[in-house]
Amino acid sequence: MLNKVEEIKLLARCVLGDNRDAFGQIVEAYRSDITRFFLNLTMGDDALSDDLAQETFIKAYLGIRSFKGLSKFRTWLYRIAYNEYYAYLRKRHEEHFDDNNPSDNLLADNHNANDASIDVHRAMQSLSEQQRAVVTLFYIEDLPIRKISEITGLPSGTIKSHLSRAKAKLAQLLENDERL
Questions:
Q1: Angle made by CA atoms 75, 81, 87, in degrees to the nearest 5
Q2: pTM > 0.85: yes or no
Q3: What pLDDT score was predicted for residue 111?
Q4: Which of 8, 68, 94, 121 fits as disulfide partner to 43, beta carbons 3.0 to 4.6 Å?
């Protein structure tokens, strides 16, 4: 993770000098965070997560001049990632993918996951896409509700509601399902 001064220097070099090496350093600093975000949303699909992360960084590079610094760069980057994931879901839906749970087949493709990961993925799969995104940002990425609101564009009350419903659903699922 970059400290604030390093991040500002790299961003300035990207914006003012179109410095690809500086952006490469930014990518290296945030790649694991963004990939982990996508891994949680895609139920552990490594290839899809890498593709979405790559698209996120391409869009960030192309739009770096639009970053105004009103929020942290990390928040801005997560907003791009969040939008990229929902663009992917819309595209899948347009390709006649099941609208109720677009991640149904993602887990079946990941044969290398251990049983505990499968259980977590199966439990997360029971959540709606927005609940999964909010849970991932709050519990896994450890972002405050205010930042999640900036990333998702949802009011903080809606985020709290998604978190509450998701916790209740996961607790019920874990309590009732012998496999989990």
A1: 140
A2: no
A3: 40
A4: 121
